[in-house]
Amino acid sequence: MRRTTADRSPAAQGPGTRGPGTQSPGTQGPAAPTHDLRHHGDAEVRDSGAELTDLAVNVRSGTPPVWLKERIAASLDGLAAYPDGRAARDAVAVRHGLGAERVLLTAGAAEAFVLVARALPARRPVVVHPQFTEPEAALRDAGHDVERVVLDERDGFRLAPDAVPADADLVVIGNPTNPTSVLHPADAIARLARPGRTLVVDEAFMDAVPGESESLAARTDLPGLVVLRSLTKTWGLAGLRIGYVLAAPGTVSALAGAQPLWPVSTPALAAAEACSAPPALAEAGHAAHRIASDRAHLTARLAEFEEVRVYEPAAGPFLLIRLPNASRVRSRLRELGFAARRGDTFPGLGPDHLRLAVRDRATTDRFAVALAKALGEG
């Protein structure tokens, strides 16, 4: 692992150039590559990419289910009234075995990152990379100098808690981590918690893990723990924007104080309540097992290519791969009808990395044919 501090020079703040880094303070050395922290998978399937088979966005295919669309549609009759989040908050609390005072509903996990950055104090914030880049972007936009702990690729991007500076008072880590698909042991992440530190764990993809093993969502004994969840991935609600925060009541109050009035819409609240009910949880559990099976099939097909490295073990609904000339291959895959997520916008990754969303076996088999053609032409 290595630690870097994000460059906060004016040039680094311009559009498309967010996320550069230098070596840790007091160490001389070359600047780290610039990373566009605002680039996300949806950029791969906009405009000319709209007709491509989408392997770039980690939203479960075939969603939202019909029953959920019906629940959301029924909520439209209440649009004349201001949103009332109490029932949805209570449903989320029951789902995790927590008191409602420990739940904050948000307009997706992305809003939660902004609230953390703006409402919670941090003298030395640290983001563990590679991971979803929005937490660092939100911290930087709020004026923080962000230090990076970059996990070692040779170690499979595994967490070593001792690599995080002891005096870091805000630490952000994903579990399972986007884009590496690593599921860190809950005990390892729990070792990062300590008095005087806020520990933010992004569990946006935890409901895609069978049994939600290694989740910290129900823990109330860890000081400073803040768990973020998203309902947009498993349920196909990226356009609706719904997620939530699980934290101590004081932290929830501080974050809520930074929200605008009525931050979550009535349809989003209806979705949160519905997706927290036992039948929905059972459906999500079945989907998680199906994703695991489909991921194993994707891994097996990728193993047919000697030049492709798959990072394992993987636990999320996506795989991180490395291959030579990945940028050229990705461009050729687009011509062949497939969108893959580039990896070089993630600190800790480079131009030879791609992220692939897990899809059904038939889609994977079609992709394998296209990949063979793209690699063969190289």
Structure commentary:
With 378 residues, the protein is α/β, with parallel strands linked by helices. 31% of the residues lie in helices and 16% in strands. The chain is built from eleven helices and 14 strands. The chain has helices at residues 66-74, 86-96, 108-119, 134-141, 186-190, 232-235, 249-256, 266-275, 278-302, 326-335, 361-376; strands spanning 2-6, 21-23, 53-55, 103-106, 125-129, 147-150, 170-174, 198-202, 225-230, 243-247, 309-310, 318-322, 338-342, 353-357. A hairpin with a 7-residue loop joins strand 11 and strand 12 (318-322). It is globular, with a radius of gyration of 20 Å. 46% of the residues are buried. Residues 6-33 have low confidence and may be disordered.
Summary, kept brief:
By secondary structure, this protein is α/β, with parallel strands linked by helices. Helix content is 31%, strand content 16%.
